[in-house]
């Protein structure tokens, strides 16, 4: 199996990653994906039918042992497949990190971490009412949180209306901030709903999320662009700092937060290489 070195692609660290491509871990897969994707996640959970999970698990583990490197989405800690996934992956040198499906407690994350090499980052995928209600405890135990919108809607009966989903998004954003984590990763736009990609990405950004799950590599360019500071945002941040550095009017309590927001825009732009 041919390995395409990740070093050929300039990607931000996972803490700043905007696009997380869920690529089914079918036998014969390759990690040679669109270079616009920030993180490749080989999916051996919902990306595979149950009958194909054993073969997919073996193919992913073999590839990670043979020089490949990627994140892997594994099955929920409440399933037997979780044990099989970790048995296969825990010793793989190419395992960059784990996305834990259907996380509902800090115990789920802790149990997973115990089976992995020390320091392996774990993104907790929150996909249920219980997971959202446990958001702060989960955030304190993991490296980053992702929002599994499809399963969350199935669990709760909520619609996809952004106003309806504002509450769970806010819970994850606030919990992440309170725990000192990077901002959360929002759910994906379905392949047949690409016409909504830009709007749904703007919703995620407005909610305070800085990444999105991705089901199609062709969506990455739009997501990366919209989740990066734009030229207008960068120019406005610079003008804001210049105005605050040479005030012509009264100084009030809004100056500090305004300066911090402008500095954050420029800092993120620099880290993402779009300054």
Please give a structural write-up.
The protein has helices spanning 53-65, 80-89, 106-114, 129-133, 135-139, 149-156, 166-178, 197-206, 220-226, 231-245, 255-272, and strands at residues 19-24, 39-43, 70-74, 95-100, 122-126, 144-147, 185-186, 211-214. It starts with 18 loop residues before the first strand and ends with a helix. Helix 1 packs parallel to helix 2 (80-89) and helix 10 packs across helix 11 (255-272). The protein has 2 domains: 14-227, Alpha-Beta Barrel (TIM Barrel), CATH 3.20.20; 231-272, no CATH class. Helix 1 (53-65) links the parallel strand 2 and strand 3. The longest helix is centred in the C-terminal third of the chain and has 18 residues, at 255-272. The radius of gyration is 19 Å and the shape is globular. The protein is an alpha/beta fold and 275 residues long. Strands 6-5-4-3-2-1-8-7 form an 8-stranded parallel beta sheet. Its cofactor is Mg(2+). GO terms for molecular function: citryl-CoA lyase activity; magnesium ion binding. This is Citrate lyase subunit beta/citryl-CoA lyase. It holds the Pfam family HpcH_HpaI. Mg(2+) binds at residues 127, 151.
